[in-house]
Design goal:
The structure holds two protein chains of two kinds. By secondary structure, chain A is an all-alpha fold. Helix content of chain A is 69%, strand content 0%. By secondary structure, chain B is an alpha/beta fold. In chain B, 44% of the residues lie in helices and 15% in strands. Chain B is globular. The chains are: A mainly alpha, B alpha/beta. Chain A binds chain B through residues 3, 18-19, 21-23, 25-27, 29-30, 33-34, 49-52, 130, 133-136, 154-159, 242-243, 245-249, 259, 261-265, and chain B through 5-6, 8-9, 12-17, 20-21, 71, 74-75, 78, 81-82, 98-99, 104-105, 108, 189-192, 247-254, 257, 384-386, 389, 392-394, 396-397, 399-400, 402-403.
Chain lengths: 299, 419
């Protein structure tokens, strides 16, 4: 029996015919699944990137990982950066969205202005900020000009500050992106609900908490998911601005993976680390997704 | 029996995927008139000059050069070599210590033996260790570079100083520079590879002046970083910092900004590779540039200078056009090729000859080369790339106060011992 497009199976969602899906799926299998599975296999060998037939090494690479202080430090940095980016980017994104959702004359200009950094390649913004952060760069020069000389910092050279300097750049670039998603959520909330709440005596804060916040839950889910995943994979900005330095203070799992593969020839260990990162991203995303969807349902 | 839909779907997908993956890889061209070369982007000016002269001397032959940055070049060459699609001639790093180095690529069989070529016998004895494997030559060395203090003469004159010949004179000069509102040495330790240069410049004297065979002893496990002249070198690195010799925030200063400081006269000089002379010149055209060896002790006779082959090329063992590839390698190794390569680059020919007119700024390197008081760049003789990367990291930690010299040396010994 042929499957009909748009047919429903016992009240479920419409299903597409299998041949409709096959070309895209074949391409996906070829480009993503097959190389990924083949690549993952190398984590259990001693492959150096050149040897055609590497030896089987069992779980050696994963044992090395447990004793690797650099990888441990990178994991902590990755989690800190992801947490920082997720919280601050979304708070700023939400505030910006609320601001440009208000009926102010310049809101269209402001939306473009806040979103603009998100369309620039991260590598380019990282280069720009590297110059702004230099000891005699624009930021320190600005503080000096404002008579705030004591605020001047070695932004990328101080190991206690460097990671947060990089995180700040990511937030600066993508807060506008979060804003756009929140704005779409805000625009989908019917005005009548606000008016009804106002008639019931709810103030601005009360309306935000009891009306806006619950109805923004889907936008919040998307934003939190995207920023957590982006934060866990952080690479470009770190590589351009610090290459993981000073002394590993800004190393993330991605920079360690890159270094192990392309600077140390230790492709097998690098792949083992990449597998760990993949599992980490998958688990955190899945837990977060379930939690957020439950909250959405509750809202 | 009809196949159920999910099964048919899986079968179709698998067939299509296998069909797609059957699109095999190509191989390098075998057109006898064309040659493919891959080189480091930093060598573009030098290589372009050689290619133009080679094409002129060989009408009808066409050389296509692909330039890439170090990281990209190393990873691309490895992938191409292992799949048999590598260029005919390509940059190979001398010795060992990085993913594109001779000792990494030769054992895998990717490099043609060049021992019988005319230039092979002319390679100076001091450079053979990093161009040969088991007594056979696999590289044509292109240039010879050194590490020392590159400075502008007007800035040195402005602080009322002259080139220091001893450690004490160097420290005194740092004070003099500070008293005149400058720093003696700009330092761009934010850029990882820059961190190693001061250590190498100091270790050349503190390690090798009294023990020229140190690297060999280390490979044999007889000596370590921890209880050697390396300790003195790292301690002196810190002493220079305490004496105010360096820029105020070296960990926040990049390579580019460190050169800019010299070009703009904020710093008198910078500890750098000789090839950076060309870049300072682009920032400060017409600047009178000079170079001196960084003294690490008080006996001028014992001062050593890191000097080594910087760029070198290998011929693909599986080149589709071996005759032309070897001809190009011969040209690179010839007097004409060596001189063309080094006239622009601020470097010396790796295979010396009488007709080369060196940049006056390189006089000191030339003198040390002729006197036999140069020491190879240390990483070229290390057994794996981790030692160099660990060195970058430890120097940054020393400057941020998150490691001590003994801890740094311990970490270097650990990296040296890894596979």
């Amino acid at each position: 029996m042929a499957t009909k497009l748009g047919s429903r199976r016992r009240g479920g969602p419409p299903t597409a015919p299998w041949w409709f899906l096959a070309p895209a799926l074949a391409f996906f299998v070829f480009v993503v699944v097959v190389p990924s599975v083949q690549g993952a296999g190398y984590a259990f060998t001693d492959w150096d990137g050149i040897t055609p037939a590497p030896d089987f090494a069992g779980l050696d690479n994963f044992r090395t990982l447990l004793d690797d202080e650099t990888a441990r430090l990178a994991l902590v940095n990755t989690l800190l950066a992801a947490a920082g980016i997720t919280v601050v980017q979304n708070v700023i994104g939400l505030l910006l969205a609320l601001g440009v959702h208000a009926r102010i004359r310049s809101r269209t200009v402001l939306r473009v202005f806040f979103f603009a950094p998100a369309v620039i390649t991260p590598v380019v913004t990282a280069y720009l900020w590297k110059y702004l952060y230099a000891p005699e760069g624009a930021i320190n020069a600005l503080f000096a000009a404002l008579g705030l000389g004591s605020w001047q910092q070695d932004w990328l050279g101080d190991p206690d500050l460097a990671l947060w300097s990089v995180v700040a750049v990511v937030i600066w670039q993508f807060a506008g992106y979060s804003m756009v998603i929140f704005l779409a959520g805000l625009q989908s909330i019917p005005q009548e609900v606000h008016e009804a709440a106002a008639l019931d005596g709810a103030g601005a804060l009360g309306r935000f908490w009891h009306v806006t916040r619950p109805m923004l839950a889907p936008a919040m889910t998307i934003n939190l998911m995207l920023s957590v995943i982006g934060g866990l994979k952080l690479f470009d900005q770190v590589w351009v601005m610090t290459q993981g330095g000073p002394g590993g203070a800004t190393d993330t799992l991605s920079t360690v993976i890159y270094r192990q593969a392309f600077q140390f020839n230790d492709f097998a260990y690098s792949i083992a680390l990449a597998l760990v990162l993949t599992v980490l991203v998958a688990v955190i995303s899945a837990v977060q997704y379930r939690g957020l969807r439950r909250r959405e349902d509750f809202s | 029996m009809p196949i159920r839909t999910p099964g048919r779907l899986a079968a179709t997908v698998l067939t299509a995927a296998l069909a797609l993956s059957g699109c095999g890889s190509g191989s390098s061209t075998s057109d006898p008139n064309s040659l493919e070369v891959a080189a480091n982007a930093t060598d573009r000016t030098a290589m372009d000059a050689v290619v133009a002269a080679f094409e002129q001397a060989n009408p009808g032959k066409q050389v296509t050069v692909t330039y890439a940055d170090t990281d990209q070049l190393q990873s691309t060459l490895r992938t191409q070599s292992s799949s048999g699609t590598g260029p005919d001639v390509f940059t190979v790093w001398p010795g060992n210590g990085n993913p594109g180095a001779l000792q990494v690529l030769q054992p895998a069989g990717y490099l043609a033996d060049l021992s019988d070529r005319p230039f092979a016998g002319a390679i100076p004895a001091a450079s053979r260790e990093v161009t040969q494997v088991e007594g056979r030559t696999y590289l044509v060395p292109a240039n010879y570079s050194g590490i020392g203090v590159l400075y502008t003469q007007p800035a040195l004159t402005a602080i009322g100083g002259q080139e220091p010949r001893t450690w004490d004179e160097l420290i005194a000069l740092c004070g003099k520079a500070r008293a005149n509102g400058k720093v003696l040495l700009s330092l761009g330790n934010q850029t990882p590879w820059v961190t190693q240069l001061v250590t190498y410049a100091l270790a050349a004297t503190t390690v090798y002046a009294d023990d020229p065979g140190f690297a060999g002893k280390m490979a044999a496990g007889q000596v370590r970083f921890a209880d050697s002249g390396w300790r003195v070198a790292l301690e002196k690195y810190q002493e220079l910092d305490r004496a105010g010799c360096f820029s105020d925030q070296p960990l926040g200063t990049s390579y580019e900004n460190s050169l800019k400081d010299v070009a703009q006269g904020k710093a008198v000089g910078v500890v750098q590779v000789a090839s950076s002379l060309a870049q300072i010149r682009t920032e400060a055209p017409g600047a009178e540039l000079r170079m001196f060896a960084l003294p690490a002790g008080n006996d001028p006779a014992k001062v050593r200078m890191p000097g080594a082959i910087s760029a070198a090329y290998g011929v693909n063992a599986k080149s589709g056009n071996p005759d032309l590839a070897l001809k190009f390698a011969d040209f690179l190794g010839s007097e004409q090729g060596q001189n063309l390569y080094n006239e622009q680059g601020g470097t010396l020919p790796a295979i010396p000859n009488a007709s080369f007119r060196a940049d006056p700024a390189l006089g000191v390197l030339d003198q040390h080369l002729r006197a036999g008081t140069t020491v190879p760049f240390m990483d070229q003789l290390w057994p794996n790339p981790k030692v160099q990367q660990e060195h970058f990291s430890q120097v940054q930690k020393l400057f941020s106060g998150s490691a001590t010299v003994p801890q740094a040396l311990e970490a270097l010994d650990k990296a040296y011992a890894t596979r």
